[in-house]
Every structure is written in structure tokens, then in C-alpha cells.
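The pair is quoted verbatim below.
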Amino acid sequence: MPLTSTGELVTRATAHRSAVASFNVITLEHVEAVIAGAEAVHAPVVLQVSENAVRFRYGRLLPLARAAVAAAERAAVPVALHLDHVRSDALLRQAPDAGFGSVMYDAARLPYAENLAATRAAADWAHAHGLWIEAELGQIGGKDGEPPLDAHAPGARTDPDQARAFVADSGVDALAVAVGTTHAMTTRTAALDRALLERLSTALDVPLVLHGSSGLPDEELAAAVTGGIAKVNVGTALNIAMTGAIREFLAAHPEAVDSRGYLTVGREAMVRTVAAIIEALGPAPAAPRAVREPA
């Protein structure tokens, strides 16, 4: 199936009051697992490559991106490719030629005025090059020198009035908001600020994105979608699944040296996690049917 765009998937999800799941990938096993999990429940999906993942891959974007594009084009469900948490303008400018249809530009660590200026410039460049762009607004710096908080920082909350102004002035296509989740949670104990999410959904006319979703139990994931979230980002949950399965395999097979053995069980654990999270989000618009293409 031809590579689709994040913007198209999010627009369709918004129209149906549903959400598209977006999974951060680090290895080819991640890519294959996300696609297989989405195919198992016949749902569209977004593959996300973060700037941190690029750094891990010796700073090279193309090897993983090319693999993700090739896998997506052979998938039986719509798959989009998204460049996540980009802080480097040089990396941003590599996105179109690498096959990405969207980016998340991350300037939330900066004071509000600098965040806005940087995001506006990124949005102008992205739109000129055919990219859909997401940004985030957590909690801007307060009085007495308090620093701004990313949308996924513990305790951060996005103010609806500030968010409305930020979206209007930056020109972004979607906004990640701070409503109670945190990146890298290894327990599913987070709780949404549902009242704030409702206010943000009412205040903004662009799709809302939820980062740090690995920490939410199923009922909170469903509540996020009901509350207006159209794109749900997941990363740590895949790594928990993969690492746990590999640990169990190596404990049971201490003699093992062939990486295919433990990578297979790690990949299958991620497939199950992907399928479970997508199902927890609730019904999604029916994905076009296609037959997986041969390699």
C-alpha cells in the first residue's frame, strides 16, 4: 500500500471522533512489529522516528527511514512516517527527502516568545515543503524565573487560552498538550486531567495530540479519545514489551547466541502490545483493505 500521510490519518480520525496510534520505532524489529500489530486489528498506524533515535543510529536518518518506508509500502494497512521531537533545524530539513510526511517540532523548552518564533519558522518551512507539522505547548515559564515545562513534563498543564493563541500565531497543524501524562513511564498509573482536556478540545480548532501515552491504563486511553485526542503517541510500552520478552528468553536459554531467537520473541511481544493499545483506543475509521505485497 502506498505510504500515506500523518495529516490524512489524523484528519480522518478527527472527523470520526477517533484517534490514530503513533509508535516510536528504534530498530527494524520495532518497524515490523508496529505494522504487524496494526494489521492484526486492521487499523492505520503512524511510525515515528525521534531525534533521539536518529542520534542512537550514529546521527544517520536515512537507514531507518528507508527501511520504514519499504515496510510501509508493503503493509496491508495505511502507514505514515513521522519525524518526532525534532529540535535540530538541520534534521527537520532532511525530512521530505527521507520519506516523512510530517514532523513534530519541539521548541517547548524555550521561553514562550522564543518557542513561538522558532515554531513559526519551522511551520512556514514545513508547509512550503509539503509537511504536516505538530508542535507542543506545555506550561510556559512563570514568575520568579520558573522555566517552561514540556507538554510531557511531570506536573505540566497546558493553558487553553495560551494554546489558542499559540496555534493561531504559529500556524501549526496539530498541538500536543499537557494533560497529565509523562514520557518514559514504566507503569500504567497516569491519570488524565479530563476537565482540562475538555477545555482544550473546545478552545482549539486543530487536532490534539497526547504524548507519553505508555503510562495510561486502557480506560484512560479510551477517555483521551473521547475527550478529543486525535493522535496518541506511544514509545516506552514497546521497549518494555521487547526487553521483558528478551530477558525471559535469555534466562530460559542461557546458551543462546543467535540473535534471531531472542529478537523474534521481542518482536512478537511488541506486536501484541501494538494491537492491544490500538484496540484500547476504541473503534477507528475502517482502513482500506490491501494485500501485503511480497518483499
About this structure: The radius of gyration is 18 Å. Residues 6-236+267-280 form a domain with the TIM Barrel fold (CATH 3.20.20.70). DSSP finds eleven helices and eight strands in the chain.
